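name: query_chain
kind: protein
chains: 1
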Amino acid sequence: MLLAYQRVNCLTINKCNMTLEFFAKTIKEYAQSVGFVHDKNGIWRKNINLIANEFEQNAYCGFIREGQGPNGPYNDFSLCFMPEKAGDSDTITACAIVLVVGTQQFMYDGNLAQSPYTRRRFLRLNNNSKAYYKSDFSNISDKLSELTTKLKQEHPHICQFDERFGPLVVAYEVFDINDDFTIDNVPFEIKKWICTYAEFRGWPTNDKQRNETVKVLSQLDSINSKKAISDDEIYNILSKDKYIILQGAPGTGKTYTALNIAKRFAKVHFTQFHAETSYSDFVYGIKPDTQSNTLIYKDSPGVLYDAIKDAMNQDVLLVIDEINRANLSNVLGPVFYLFEKNTGDNRKYKIKIGDIEIDQLPEKLHVIGTMNTADKSLAVVDFALRRRFTWITLRPQILERKDFRKDIFLDFEDIFMRHATDEELNLQPGQSYFIAEDDKVMRNRLKYELMPLIKEYINEGFLRSAKDEFVNYFYNKIGELMYE
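structure:
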């Protein structure tokens, strides 16, 4: 269970003189600039003018769901700001920004809490920093005990929200206030929370409000948090770990990346697995000599045997495309034993492959396998084999090139972000589907590639809640019905 906690480090001596009242006023005014209207689309609550002991226990200001009272118990998701004072003064030194469920728990937000999209909205707030999030925003039974200890150590005067609300807190950040600020220069750390909550609640209703929200949220990572891994990074991992798997959805460039990396090797062997691939095909076997007048058999070295032979003298790369299309137990047989990264000196038994006997694969042999995570009909890779490879996931990426249809790519990403479970995110079509030199090519790709792919997903039981949206999307884009 993960809970969000982020602390912005203070690099300067705190010289802030921001008062409680001014802080609360600024928070409310900024929220109004992105569409908040008290008593219409939310309720503003403020409880900060308290004596010392009560302040640490009860001080907060923030926004709760519309339709509730100005005080007392409330339900559903709220965004609260809980300040820390400098001793007995009225000056704020830090503030906890908290996404919390009311003490009356869920009345209207239950379905939203179960939606992965709700969690993904707030995951964006973890922008290049250490953070912890509840992995399930509908879980209001558990809390992270380690976090309570850490918070008490670093901010003992604002830990009351964890003590009072505990499991009801689903995400938060502690922000050190080092400078005064106004409505015109609200810190980004505060803006990003208010704008995310504003987007979540649908506050913006005009262009000015929407533009401010978009401007702030565009500075965050993609909601899918898909950070590209470079070919150099993959090559460095391959050099160290020897055996890697590039996995990902169709179109994410698995084979393309493997072949790019292959250019760095003097010798490359390539094979593609399929349902009928056997040990004889891949490792070593015998085949009838069709040129002979009598039935005789001759040795038939497989691609692995050839790669092993070559790797005794030079660096070699073996690329196994679509590695999970075959029955891996049958294909590897006893050579499964050889795919071990850290053998030590404990190898006593050798495996015979043709005319060679080895107890481990040559140091100069490197292996890249590619695996399509979208094809659920393929062989399952067992845990023992998984342990022997390093797994690298290639995710859909925005490409900075003129023929990349970024707008359509983002349309698909948005639908997946709003409807897909964590597992179904592995089905999102990759960037190669959205490379098209003109509108006609892109239209044909939507009609003959993407629409059939999405239809197959839905028919297999995936992305069911997105069915109507995809039907409408394809019809509006290309005038074609996904279902007649």
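note: The longest strand covers residues 92-101.
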